[in-house]
Amino acid sequence: MTLPEKESTVRQQAASNYIPKQPVHIECSIERALDVIGGKWSFLVLRELFGGTMRFGELQRKIVSISPKSLTDTLRHLEENGVLERTAYPTVPVTVEYKLTPKGEDLHQILKEMKLWAAKWCDTGASKP
Questions:
Q1: CA 64 to mean position of chain CA atoms
Q2: N or C: which terminus of the chain carries fewer CB neighbours within 10 A?
Q3: DSSP character at residue 28
Q4: What is the CB-side half-sphere exposure of residue 5 using CA atoms within 13 A?
Q5: How many Å is the Cα radius of gyration of the chain?
Q6: Closest CA to 77 of 111, 58, 104
Q7: DSSP conformation class of 96
Q8: Can you tell me the distance from the alpha carbon of 7 to that of 3, in angstroms, rounded to the nearest whole number?
Q9: What is the per-residue pLDDT across 87-106, written as a single tens digit (0 to 9) for each?
Q10: 27 exposure class (CB count in 10 Å sphere: 0-12, 13-18, 19+)
Q11: What gap in Å lies between CA 15 and CA 2, rounded to an integer?
C-alpha cells in the first residue's frame, strides 16, 4: 500500500468516528458510555466546549481546580474517543484549539437532563442525616 493510500485509509477510519451507528443489540451501553465520558473532568470540559471552540488556556481558566496534566489527559481521552477534535496551527508558540465533534455535540441534551436532575434532587443547602 502506498503512502497516499495509507493516508486515505486513516482519514476514512477517522471520519467513521463521526458517523452515528444504529445499535442492533444494546449490551452494557452505560458502561461503554462511561468509558468514553466518565472521567473526573470530562463533564466540565464538555460543559465549556458546548459554548464553542476553546484553547487550552481558556479551558484551564474556566475549570479553575483542574491541573494542566489532568486537563491534557482529559482532552486526549476525549479526542481518542472521537468526542472532540484538536486543531494545531503553525504559529509561534503553537496555537491549539479544541471543539466538539458531532459525537460530542450529541451529548449536550444528555448533560442538560443531568443538570435538571441535579437541580431537582440534589439539595445543596440541607445537612445530611
A1: 18
A2: C
A3: S
A4: 2
A5: 18
A6: 104
A7: E
A8: 6
A9: 999 999 999 999 999 999 99
A10: exposed
A11: 20
Q: What are the backbone angles phi and psi of residue 24, rounded to the nearest 5°?
A: -85, -45
Residue 108 near residue 50 (C-beta atoms within 8 A): yes
| First CA to last CA distance, the chain | 66
The pLDDT assigned to 50 comes to 97
Give helix 42-49 / helix 29-37 axis angle, nearest 10°: 70
Q: What is the pTM of this model?
A: 0.74
**Over 90: is that where the pLDDT of 64 sits?**
yes
DSSP for 40-94, written as a single string: TTHHHHHHHHTT--EEHHHHHHHSTT--HHHHHHHHHHHHHTTSEEEEEE--SSP
The closest alpha carbon to 114, from 59, 43, 36, belongs to 43
